[in-house]
Structures are given as C-alpha cells and as structure tokens.
C-alpha cells in the first residue's frame, strides 16, 4: 500500500524554497496561454456550496470580498452567486480574460460582453492589490496561498481587511485517504495534497487562531477528464516534454490497465475541501 502524505508542522509554508515557488508559480501567471487558461477552468473542480457559504457566514449580507490569486474565477463566480461584491486579484492576463468571459451575467440592461457589476478584476499580485485600506469584509485565497510571499501577503491582508474581517484559505484536494486516489496523485505528480495538521502560516500577533472545516465529496469525471486535469498542474506545466511523455504513459497504464476504467464513462473521484478561517481582531 502506498505511503500516506506525511504530516507537516502547522504554520510551515507548503513551498519553502522561494525560487521554486517563483518557478512553479510562473506556470500559472506569466507563462499561461489563453488555451491553457480555458483548459484549467474546464478541468478544475468547483467548491461545494456549503464551503462557499461558510466563507461568508460572519460577513455582512452583501460582503466585499477580495479573491487573491483568483485565477479564472472559479471561486469568484461562486461568491458572486452568493451575493458578494468581489475584487478578483490575479496577475495572469490569460487567466483574467477567462475570468471576465466566464463571469458574465445575463442582463437586459447591459451588453453581452459586460461582466457582473459586482465584480472588479485587478490584474496585479496578492502582495500589492491596490485596494483601499480596510475596504474588504473577507479576504480569501483559493488554491493559491502557497504561491504568495508569506510576509508580504500578510501585510497586505492586514491593510485591506477591516477589523473583525475574515481571512479564508481554501483548497480542493484529491482525497488521498482513498488508496487508489493516493496512487493517482503520485502518478499525476499532484503536489498539493492535504497534509494533516497543517494551517496557513500567519503571525498570531495580527490574526486570530484558525478554524478548520473539512468537507468530503465526490466528483463525476471521465478518464479523459482526469488526463486533462493532470495537464493543469504546475508540475506538468513546468515539466519538459520527455517528463510529460513518461507521465502520460504512466497515467494511461493506471487508468486503462490497472483500474480498467472504460473510456468515456464517469467515475466518482473523491475530493477533500479544506477551509481555514481566521478573524482579524477588531479595534480596541
């Protein structure tokens, strides 16, 4: 049986080497093509509705949310559907083009090319959002916190988050407690697996203790869609062609021969969504 992901001490960065962080992160920002951005949006899982609701549970009725590292807007769209006003912060040109296109809302008073009036897209980094001081009720990072500079992003979150506001860090993980899924993550080189006991590294002098919510669910996905999903990972995007070819062959063997998954037939792929929330202390 394959070994389980090793526990990682709380408050330790998932990517401790800053050069590696920049190199892998570039595969989602400066190096992403428009085609890759559309593939990413189609292949990546969405967030369960109850998790999205939990992000906003202590916020006002119409909260102002900064979505850091918003990517193609998978979470931004879910937040909009819950009535939030969203500042989507994302440096990738290709990602923000998909974000804008996918965030359109049918409205007779607007043209078809206009995005929701409750969405503003900021083509910049999480460490320098340009948003106003104490302007947000919630700051959230979905599948993105590990790409940020720990010290700089905390400083920026403290600046733009109002006292008593919520910092939320959320991620979808393939559920490695299921043996066949754990082996799949190793073949796909999915580095973003859940490490039990881990919490985002923040300075306790400025942020309250973390509350963690785990939600297990399943996603219907075909073997072909699993292959596409694997091509949206940073480990794939940053790999050379020989490494990709080896990974293709290994994945084909695992899906077709070992698991014997019929082509085109959906399989239930287990996921674990983990939400960490912390409240910025109010003024005294």
Report on the architecture of this protein:
There is one protein chain. This protein is of the alpha/beta class. It has a domain at 18-174 and 193-219 and 271-279: Rossmann fold. It has ten helices and seven strands. The chain has helices at residues 18-26, 34-43, 49-55, 74-81, 93-102, 150-160, 179-188, 223-230, 234-237, 241-258; strands at residues 64-68, 85-89, 119-122, 136-142, 161-174, 211-221, 267-279. Strands 3-2-1-4-5-7-6 form a seven-stranded mixed beta sheet. Helix 2 packs across helix 5 (93-102). The model is unreliable at 23-27 and 107-114 (pLDDT under 50).
Compact overview of the structure:
The chain has 284 residues and is of the alpha/beta class.
How would you describe this structure in keywords?
7-stranded mixed beta sheet, 284 residues, alpha/beta, Rossmann fold, single chain
The CATH topology of the domain at 18-174 and 193-219 and 271-279, please? Rossmann fold
Mean pLDDT: 87
The fraction of residues in strands falls at 15-25%
Strand arrangement, major sheet: 3-2-1-4-5-7-6
Which structural category fits the helices and strands?
alpha/beta
Number of strands: 7
């Amino acid at each position: 049986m394959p070994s389980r992901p090793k526990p990682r001490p709380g408050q330790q960065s998932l990517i401790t080497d800053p050069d590696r962080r920049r190199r892998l992160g570039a595969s989602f920002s400066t190096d992403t093509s428009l085609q890759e951005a559309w593939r990413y949006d189609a292949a990546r899982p969405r967030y369960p509705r109850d998790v999205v609701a939990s992000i906003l549970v202590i916020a006002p009725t119409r909260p102002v949310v900064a979505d850091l590292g918003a990517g193609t807007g998978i979470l931004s769209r879910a937040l909009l559907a819950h009535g939030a006003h969203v500042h989507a912060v994302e440096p990738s040109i290709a990602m923000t083009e998909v974000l804008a296109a996918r965030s359109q809302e049918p409205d007779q008073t607007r043209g078809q090319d206009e995005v929701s009036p409750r969405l503003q897209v900021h083509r910049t980094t999480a460490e320098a959002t340009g948003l106003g001081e104490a302007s947000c009720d919630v700051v959230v990072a979905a599948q993105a916190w590990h790409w940020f500079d720990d010290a700089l992003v905390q400083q920026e979150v403290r600046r733009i988050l109002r006292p008593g506001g919520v910092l939320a860090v959320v991620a979808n993980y393939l559920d490695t407690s299921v043996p066949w899924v754990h082996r799949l993550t190793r073949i796909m080189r999915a580095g973003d697996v859940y490490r039990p006991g881990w919490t985002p590294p923040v300075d306790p002098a400025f942020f309250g203790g973390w509350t963690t919510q785990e939600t297990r669910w399943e996603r219907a996905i075909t073997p072909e869609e699993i292959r596409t999903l694997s091509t949206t990972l940073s480990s794939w995007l940053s790999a050379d062609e020989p490494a990709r070819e080896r990974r293709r062959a290994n994945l084909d063997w695992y899906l077709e021969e070992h698991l014997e998954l019929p082509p085109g037939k959906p399989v239930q792929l287990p996921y674990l969504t983990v939400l960490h929330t912390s409240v910025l202390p109010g003024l005294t």
